[in-house]
Write a structure and sequence with these properties.
Largest sheet: 5 strands, mixed, barrel
Shape: elongated
Order of helices and strands: EEEHEEHHHHHHEEHHHHH
Number of helices: 12
Distance between the termini: 30 Å
């Protein structure tokens, strides 16, 4: 239900085409008082009047004018006002620091072929890596979010390895932590001015997901254990995993990145408000 007195936080925003060929904005906001989610529609005329920066993820806004449609359980918005502007991401100095720390982990890998492979990817795509979010919505959805998520995963990996060092290949674990979401630098497009995140439709024409990209590049370079960890890191096929951990005979090492990734997604610095 629409509350014109409430302050809402922007969860996600996207622009698509209507059947008539005009533009339509889809906005999802959260009522900060009760946590209720409100789905909103903005017609092209409204979009043309409003500054795109208003729709930055985590912005606090008030809905000045809108009508609630009970049939479709959404709100048609004609005017909003900014209450508090959110950051688009973590600052450049912190991103550089995180990049250096991740690269240090890559250099810890004892297998020189694997270490050189990971380092070469980090260096080749440094610019893209430093702005990419780790997700569009679910976690670390801000500029530099992928760096933050990757470093958290490496930190969690150290805890696991200290308890299971004789049961896990540390080289593979470090490499999989760094590369399990690396394909997101191609999967997402982020507007560095507004912080808005969209899927890269060209990437989606060739690849199912970032997991498929990571699995493929590791397999093609001979790093099968790393590839299997990446393939299983979403846990279940209906969550996007290429290897379903609910199936029988999954090798124990395949579970490690799934649990590490899940811990960071749920308990790490999951949104830009955790960084402030």
């Amino acid at each position: 239900m629409l509350d014109l007195n409430a302050i809402y936080e922007i969860v996600t925003f996207s622009i698509g085409d209507t059947k008539a060929g005009s533009k339509m904005g889809k906005l999802q906001v959260k009522n900060l008082e009760n946590g209720n989610i409100l789905n909103c529609i903005l017609w092209e005329e409204t979009l043309n009047r409003l500054d795109a920066k208003l729709f930055r993820t985590n912005n606090h806004i008030k809905i000045i004018s809108g009508t609630y449609n009970e049939k479709y359980n959404n709100c048609l918005i004609s005017e909003i006002a900014l209450v508090k502007e959110a950051k688009t991401g973590i600052d450049e100095n912190l991103r550089e620091d995180l990049y250096i720390k991740i690269k240090e982990y890559a250099l810890k890998i004892k297998d020189k072929k694997l270490s050189d492979f990971v380092v070469s990817l980090l260096e080749k795509y440094k610019k893209e890596l430093k702005i990419t979010p780790a997700a569009k919505l679910m976690h670390h959805n801000y500029i530099g979010g992928l760096l933050q998520h990757t470093y958290e995963c490496l930190d969690f990996a150290n805890l696991f390895l200290s308890k299971c060092e004789n049961k896990l290949n540390a080289d593979s674990v470090y490499a999989a932590c760094i590369l399990h979401d690396f394909g997101k630098i191609f999967e997402y497009v982020v507007d560095t001015e507004t912080g808005l995140i969209e899927y890269n439709e060209d990437f989606r024409k060739d690849w199912r997901t970032h997991s498929q990209w990571g699995f493929t590049i590791c397999m093609s370079n001979g790093f099968k254990e790393v590839a299997k960890m990446i393939a299983a890191h979403h846990g279940r096929k209906d969550w996007g995993a290429l290897i379903d951990l609910d199936e029988k005979d999954a090798e124990p090492f395949m579970y490690i990145i799934h649990h590490i990734d899940d811990l960071s997604a749920k308990f790490g610095k999951i949104s830009i408000t955790d960084i402030d």
